[in-house]
Amino acid sequence: MKRALLCFIILITGFSGIQAQKSQFNPPDFKKIGKTINKTGKPLNYQNLLQRLNQNDTLLSLREYHLLYYGYALQPGFNPQVNHPLADSLMLILHKDLLNESDYQHIIGLASDLIFHSPFEISFLDPLILSYRMLGNEDMAARLEFRFGRIIETIFSSGDGLTQETAFHVVSVNHESDMLRALGFSYGGQRIKSGDGTDYLKVAKNDFGINGLFFRIPPARNL
User: Fold this and answer.
1) Which residues are CB-contacts of 144 (< 8 A; sequence separation ≥ 6)?
2) What pTM did the predictor assign?
């Protein structure tokens, strides 16, 4: 997270015009992504990539995460606002004052199921990483931390969020607030939606003079 914030500070302090910054970003080209991930039998076929993701493969490159993350929005039934019923059960455990070994095992069971169905939800990865670490499984915690970091890096490489043209591209509404936290900002209490799928989130007063950040979300897809 510190790396992401450092890069963001460099972008701001080195600001020399929108056109100069745009060349540094890699926003999703969904038409191109669709052609790549739909090639049957190829290494970059979406199901092949997803299988590696579910195995927490730490050899997945940033390009492959780009295809995975944004390719997720092209899958049938995609919904950027979908809610999973097990999420409430997970939150109940996390809100306990004191967690024991049984709680951590329960969290792993619930969060693993949630991640399987919603593979990019950072809010489920966080408690999963903690639980594995608390139970002494450092290898799995490290693999999931890699996954966590790659998701943040993928979103971060899509823009800077400073303008509507250079908005961060996310596939989940939840990732808007996740990115605010990753960059060290606090939510300012107002979300402004536009008709083109762009959200503007105001942020609390900060040392960088940033009033808010822009996010672009792809539309839901029919089953």
Assistant:
1) 56, 125, 128, 129, 132
2) 0.87
